[in-house]
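A brief tutorial aside. Many learners find it easier to grasp structure tokens once they have seen a single protein encoded end to end. The record that follows does exactly this for Fur family transcriptional regulator, zinc uptake regulator. Read the sequence first, then the structure, and try to relate runs of similar tokens to stretches of the chain.
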Amino acid sequence: MLKDIIEKLRSKGCKITPQRRIIIQSLIKFTKFPTASELCNDIRQTNPEISLDTVYRNLNLLIDMGVVNQINLPGKDANVFELSLEGHHHHLVCLGCGAADCLDYCPVDEKELQKATGLKFEIIGHSLELYGYCEKCKALSK
């Protein structure tokens, strides 16, 4: 997986720095979507010199390159991150426990969105989080 991500980044002209490599490796290790702080803490176990600012800066670049998705969660540490290897998709976010799950397809028709915005605005991408309650939290509220 690491090799595929690095190849994709290189094909877009992105330099593979040691920091980028360890951030990608850390993202691969996580089974759930980590926050930037969780990534930083994980990386500091082997690379104590890395800063949270470096993690954020590289995450933003990886988002721009299309290999990382940012998922917006309500709350203090309001963003989690995932590797974006399986193509464009969206997320279901639980307002109860904060869990985020992938919606394995995109329900948005960008051509229709472009028609709605007209010629004055060119859409180059979109992101969508659907907020509600997971099965567990929905059952607890009853």
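Self-check: Residues 65 and 89 are 16 Å apart (CA to CA). If you spotted this yourself, you are ready for the next section.
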